[in-house]
Amino acid sequence: MQIETSQSANGYKITVKEVIKTIEDSTIFKKSISEVLLKEPGAKVDIHIVDSYIITSSIIGTLLKMVQKDNAKIAIFVYSADLYELLDKLNLITLLNVKKEF
Question: Concatenated DSSP letters for 63-85?
Answer without folding.
Answer: HHHHHHTS--EEEEEE--HHHHH
